[in-house]
Amino acid sequence: MSQRMVRGLIIAAASAALSVAAVPAVAQQPSMSKGAPQLKHESKSGSARKQELQHVQKRMQSLRQQLGQIRQAAFKHNPKLKKEQKHLSQLVRSTMKKHGDDPAPHQKKLKQLRAQFQKKNLKKGQRQKIVQQAQQEEHALRSGYRKALQDKGVQKAQKQFRHDMLAAMKKQNPKTDQLIAQYRKERKQMIAILTQGHGGAAHGKR
C-alpha cells in the first residue's frame, strides 16, 4: 500500500463512515476503477476485456461527475435540503451514541493518526502500525454507522431525505433519472465483464 493511498485512507475514514447517503448514491460512490478487481489476463481475449472494462469505468466516472454536479446544484438552490441533511446527520450521530457507538472518539483518533502519519522520518514499522490503527478505527465507525441505519427513526428520515433529494435533482436537471439508469446499466456491464474474466481465469486453471 503506497503512502498516498494510506494518507487517503486516514483522511477519508474520519468522515466516510458518517456521510449520510443522498440520492442518487452513485453520485457519492468512489471510483470503481480503484476498488474493483482488475483483469490480469494477457491473452488477446483478456486484453480486449480489460480495454472494455476501462471504457466502462470511464463512462461511469463521467456519469458520477454529472450526477454529483446536479446534486451540488440542488443543494445550492434548496436551503431546506441542507437543513434536512444536517438533521439526518445529527440523528445518525445521536443514534450511534445511544447504541454505545459514539463516533467522536474514533474521529478524534483518526485525526491524530493523520497528523502522525504526515510526520517525516517515520520508520516503515511505525507507518504500518498507524495504518492498522486507522483501519481499526474506521471499522468501528462503519460498524456503528451500520447499526444506526437499522433504527426505524433513521430509516424513515433517510427515506424522506432521499425522496426530497431526488425530487430537487430532477427539478434541477430533468435528465437525472436517465443518468441514474445509465449508470446502473454501466455498472451491471462492469460486473458482467469482471465475472466473465474471473470465470475464464478459473476455467483456464483446470
The fraction of residues in strands falls at: under 5%
Number of helices: 8
Oligomer: single chain
Order of helices and strands: HHHHHHHH
What would you say this structure looks like, in words?
About 17% of the residues have low confidence. This protein has 206 residues and is mainly α. The protein has one domain. It has eight helices and no strands.
SSE blueprint:
Blueprint: H1 3-16, H2 32-35, H3 44-76, H4 79-98, H5 103-117, H6 124-148, H7 152-172, H8 176-204
Helix pairs in contact: 1-5, 1-6, 3-7, 3-8, 4-6, 4-7, 5-6
For this entry, give a set of tags.
0% strand, 206 residues, single chain, mainly alpha
Outline:
The protein has helices at 3-16, 32-35, 44-76, 79-98, 103-117, 124-148, 152-172, 176-204. By secondary structure, the chain is an all-alpha fold.
